[in-house]
Amino acid sequence: MKRSPLLLLPLSWLAVTLAGCPEYFEPAKIGSYALKENTPYSSVPSRIYVANESSNDVSVIDASTFQPVGSIPALNHSTHDLAVSRDGRRLYATNLASGRVSVIDTVQKETIASIYTGDRCHVVALSNDDSQLWVANIGENTISIVDTTTFRILGTIPVSKGPTGLTFSHDGRFAFVSAQGDKTVGVIDTTTHQLVKTIPVGANPHFLVVGRDGHVWGVNTGENDIYVLDPESHEKVGAFAVGDKPQQIAFAYRGTQGPLAYVTVGSQNKVVALGGDPKNLKVVEEIPVGEGPNGIWSNPEGTRLFVAHDKGNEIRVIDTGTGQTLATVPVGRKPIRVVVSR
Amino acid sequence: MKIRKIGLVFIFGIHTVLATTSVALADNQPIGLATNAIGTLVIVRTDGVQQRLQGMGKVALFEGDVLKTDGSSQALIEFQEGIQVALNENTSFKLLSRWEKDKPTTRIIRMKEGEVWAKTTGGPKRFEVETPVATAAVRETEFNLKVQDDGQSILTVIEGVVQFGTPFGTCPIKTETISYGVRGKKCTKPAATDAKAAKSWTEAVRSIAK
């Protein structure tokens, strides 16, 4: 009789439990969406958060009215990347020059902790259950793992040279890390913290994001193209040249079309919308924007894009149905990353 | 009404400046002293400048300093909060801290390699030792932590309780027990051990400093 591998899971879990300390046990939660105990349920309004690298702060914008709400000092230097918790109550900001992550209470709109992760900490990603923060440190070629409850560094994973992009698979089993130094994306098994695969992707890979269908999308700023990785085989299945200095990617709909991948192209002041099969991508639309488009994020419905302009120091809100700019909101100096809470 | 508004803005501004200053000051205020070295303790400042301690002394330590001993050296340092740390041979770590609003600063040492002994005195402290695979967090305790070449970390608690955490779980390790932290796993079940033997290497560097 052939046993289903699923039947072995409870047994293996039990074995792991018995092998460890009995008094206190926290199984790996990556991939779980279970709410923590005592999670407050009061609503937090949807906000747009923008990391401003040269003013060392985070701009806050109302996601419904597009009106500025204020700015939050990061209390560190060179605020670069952002990750927002699923409940919208915590925001984590990397600060390149400080090597520290700022923890921001979004309700009080203030920085409540500053955690040293490593030299030139660059990008940050939350595990799927928000219990861990993974931070890539370019200066040390490591990923720091931060407990989001105690703010302790729980471990460090060595990675390839120049980690500049970081994202998790939909099921949380794998973390993908782009490495500029060896032109690859590394795949880390989150249950063992071992590097299980290295995928050549091209020159100067940078930003990484997981798409709505689970494909992992990356940007090669050195080759002016984007690439797509298959979530199962972890193979590069597609690539497309979008123009000089592609920066970041977000996913949204254009009427009935989509989800499309919207790519900011820094030197051409435009956002390129790509559609079709990842193996055969096509340009669906090009949207002219302001100076130096960099960060991009969509609303949960996929009808609006929020584009940060690192030269124009502004956010543009774009209606994906028409490609028109609905609002232009001034932010801090050199906005790099934009995220939106739900 | 207008005056009240201006007052609020002023108070908010002062608060923001003070908060910013409190974090920024961390880099240029001494956080402790290197008090003794058998052989040589090398202190590498954040700008790359090196300072050495040989024998007894009082060398100021700052946030971001990297401390190193070679194969024939041991050293002793003290944080201003009342935490003693001894470095065994071939040990290297960085002095860090974590700032949290309305809480005392947490002193952190990030070990790359080697072995340290640490003891807190004068009440509860906020002190953590990070290794490549685990973190030991203490309040009032005495412990020994060794990091092997592969990052595996061996914690021996001499007195008190240490929260020994990896990304896969946290265990309270109590007096006279030992636990191992390995990459990809939670810490092992604590086992009884001879804790005094674990700190025997510190006798020389601590006795000279007394």
Question: Would you mind describing this structure in some detail?
Answer:
The complex is a heterodimer of chains A (342) and B (210). Chain A has one helix at 5-19; strands spanning 47-52, 57-62, 68-73, 79-84, 90-95, 100-105, 110-116, 121-126, 132-137, 142-147, 153-158, 163-168, 174-179, 184-189, 194-200, 205-210, 216-220, 225-229, 236-241, 246-254, 257-265, 270-275, 282-288, 293-298, 304-309, 314-319, 325-330, 335-340. Chain A starts with a helix and ends with a strand. Chain A is globular, with a radius of gyration of 20 Å. Chain A is mostly beta strands and 342 residues long. In chain B, strands 1, 2, 3, 4, 5, 6, 7, 8, 9, 10, 11, 12 and 13 form a 13-stranded mixed sheet that branches. The longest helix of chain B has 23 residues, at 2-24. Chain B is globular, with a radius of gyration of 19 Å. Chains A and B meet through strand 7 and strand 11 of A and helix 1, strand 6 and strand 11 of B. Strand 7 (110-116) of chain A pairs antiparallel with strand 6 (92-100) of chain B, so a sheet runs across the interface.
